[in-house]
Specification:
- With about 140 residues, the chain is an alpha/beta fold.
- The chain has a single domain, classed as Toll/interleukin-1 receptor homology (TIR) domain (Rossmann fold, 3-Layer(aba) Sandwich).
- Helix content is about 40%, strand content about 15%.
- The protein has six helices and five strands; from the N terminus they run E-H-E-H-H-E-H-H-E-E-H.
- Strands 2-1-3-4-5 form a five-stranded parallel sheet, with helices on both faces.
- Helix 1 links the parallel strand 1 and strand 2.
- The longest helix is centred in the N-terminal third of the chain and has 13 residues.
- The protein starts with 5 loop residues before the first strand and ends in an 11-residue tail after the last helix.
Length: about 140
């Protein structure tokens, strides 16, 4: 079943990959909260992010060494892990190899591997929601 809205958690250092992923998900009709696009101007970052976390029904986190070191990513993951709405709806994406010690609870979830290629990673992620991949615009 397609999501109502997906929260995309990522480190600012991984923004280029997060933007590429956000574009692919949007192209495939997946409603998405992506902070650089959804929080405008003087809007409070904290309240905007909290509001989205309370509204979204899926949580996707882009994992990398920078994400592991990000205070915001750790806070967003902690929120998702504690909210029953996200039970069985947390999807870690392995973008770059990293040590999950500080986010060890994520090891309980099936991780989708993007290290083998963007298209293969998108195909696996979209399959979670029963959405077929249209490759023509992913290159």
């Amino acid at each position: 079943m397609p999501p109502i809205e997906v929260f995309l958690s990522h480190s600012n250092q991984d923004r280029a990959m997060a933007e590429r992923l956000a574009t692919a998900l949007t192209y495939h009709g997946v409603p998405l909260f992506f902070s650089p696009e959804n929080i405008v101007g003087a809007q409070q970052w904290q309240s905007g992010i909290l509001s989205a976390l309370q509204r979204c029904d899926w949580f996707v986190v882009l994992l990398s060494p920078d994400a592991i070191d990000s205070m915001w990513v750790r806070r967003e993951v902690a929120f998702a892990l504690q909210d029953p709405r996200y039970e069985d709806r947390i999807v870690p994406l392995k973008y770059r190899n990293c040590d999950l010690k500080s986010l060890q609870w994520l090891t309980l979830f099936q991780t989708i591997d993007f290290t083998g290629g963007f298209t293969a990673g998108c195909r696996s992620l979209l399959r979670v929601w029963g959405i077929g991949l249209r490759e023509e615009r992913l290159q």
